[in-house]
Amino acid sequence: MPFRVDNPLAARLLADPEMAVALKPFMAGPASVKDLALAQGLSLQRAHYRVGLLMRAGLLRPAGIRPRRGRPVRLYRAVDTDFRIPRELVPEGVLRALEGARSWQEEWARALEAHDPGYGAVLRVFLNEEGLLEFGGEAEPDLLAEDFPPLVNLWSAGLHLRREEAKALQRELLALYHRYAALSPARKEEGQARYLVHLGLAPAPQ
Asked: What share of the chain is helix, strand, coil (3-state, %, to 5)?
């Protein structure tokens, strides 16, 4: 049965993507502060701070120790892997940012700006080869060029599909995401980088 959150601090942390993702290593099993730091590329100081907050909020519990030479390592575990938060416990500003994916959008924009410092200077609205209206930058880069980073930002003004076609697209998008999500390990490995992914599909208002 999902864990029902009744603690305002826990609600605020779970609604904050940066803090909620810190719970992930501890959902998979007992983990240490260092495990969190390695999994998410954090300093030990920042990892200690996040673990302390999660403990105060009642989202982590002690899970024993890991023996080693010298001082043993404390382990922690998430109290659950599924949480239900009453909306009234989430601050309105946090809720709006979460529902609008504001934090992810800002991080995506920073990533693109790092690759192309001129990004966003001009808005381009154009009809693409498929006859769909697109919004983007002044120049359309060669997205598939080897020297172009794995970045995609595509918003279409609308696909015209029958319901069964839209359901097929929905299934394919989710299957593709889960296929690559399965490659993501519990901890960060050499040569890996974290990527932001956004999938969206909805019937347009009539």
From this structure: 40, 15, 45
